[in-house]
Each structure stands twice: as C-alpha cells, then as structure tokens.
Design brief:
alpha+beta, two-stranded antiparallel ribbon, about 30% strand, binds zinc ion, Peptide Deformylase
C-alpha cells in the first residue's frame, strides 16, 4: 500500500528518528509500503519522516537514475551497486572517506525544487538491514549522495539546510510558497 507523502512545512520532517531496535512485522510492512511509495513517486530514496514516522529507517533504490553513476565496495571488493537494490537501512552511520563534491539534489518532500549540494563523494556506511543483519559497505557517486541525504532526514536535517547561500536564495520564493501551502493544509 502506498503512503501519503509529507511535504516541507510539516514539523514531522524536523523530527529526530528513534533507533529501530528490531525488524518487527510492523517494520517489515512499513518497508514494503515505503518501497511502493518511493516507486510511485519515482524517487531514489525515501525516509520514514517523509511518510510521517519518527524512526531511523530509509529505503533506497538508485536503479532508476541510470545516467548518474554510483560505485560500491562489499568486503573490499568492487561490486555492482544495482545488485543490492533496493535496500532498507536502519540506524545508518556514515564515515566520510574523501572530499566533498557538489552535485544536484531534489527531494520528494520538495516537489519541483532542486539545488546543488556539496557532500563527501565516497563514504563508509554501517547500518541494520531489512533482515535485522548488520550491513557495512563503501559507496561513491550518486549512491553515496543518496545515503547521506536520507540519513540527514532521519535526524531532521533537510537538503535545503546544506545549500550554500546563493543556491538557497535562488529557491527562496518556491520554498516559502511550499511551506505556506503545507501549513495551510495542516490547519
Ligand atoms: Zn529527501
């Protein structure tokens, strides 16, 4: 079942997610519903806050973004990033492995709003996977950008918070309009 999306201006997007202790049947169902929702809206990542849940769970599937390359290393060996898609990450921890690079980002909670954001290009990720297992991998390119964007969501941080001042100035009017629309619908 797909879930209603939460848009910028709703305070739940600013909530810090609680740690997920175990993959219960409820969490399994939420993962399935979030994957369906992400697919419906053609996203490559979706965080629990974006469907109104304050927990550290995100789903990612970068396969739709064919023109933006990703890299993956599993146990020190290069692997095909598509081979592990889609993924669900709980309680992810990120270690940056190189310098930030600038690249374009959007977000399902900010329709039609895009901007360049600077983030480390390569990261190590440690998380709990959908079977409750501990996962560890190194990724680069779009996948690294996506994992960092989604992990931010789990702590109430949004991509607009990481834009530099000129980038944010460019989208200021659109941001204000979206925030007002969301707040009007919440009242
Ligand atoms: Zn987002």
């Amino acid at each position: 079942m797909d879930l209603p999306l939460i848009y910028y201006g709703d305070p739940v997007l600013r909530a810090k997610g609680a740690t997920v202790e175990a993959v219960t049947p409820e969490i399994e169902q939420l993962i399935a519903d979030m994957l369906e929702t992400m697919k419906k809206y053609r996203g490559i990542g979706l965080a629990a806050q974006q469907v109104g849940r304050k927990i550290q769970l995100t789903v990612i599937d970068i396969r739709a973004a064919e023109n933006r390359p990703s890299t993956l290393e599993l146990e020190g060996e290069e692997a095909d990033p598509n081979s592990i898609m889609p993924i669900a990450l709980m309680n992810p921890k990120i270690t940056p492995l190189n310098d930030p690079v600038s690249g374009p980002e959007g977000c399902l909670s900010f329709p039609e709003i895009f901007g360049d954001i600077s983030r480390p290009e390569k990261i190590r990720v440690q998380a709990m996977g959908r079977e409750g297992e501990s996962m560890e991998f190194v990724c680069g390119g779009l996948l690294a950008r996506c994992v960092q964007h989604e992990t931010d969501h789990l702590h109430g941080i949004l991509f607009v918070d990481r834009m530099d001042r000129p980038t944010k100035a460019d989208i200021r009017d659109d941001l204000n309009a979206l925030q007002e629309k969301t707040k009007a619908e919440l009242d």
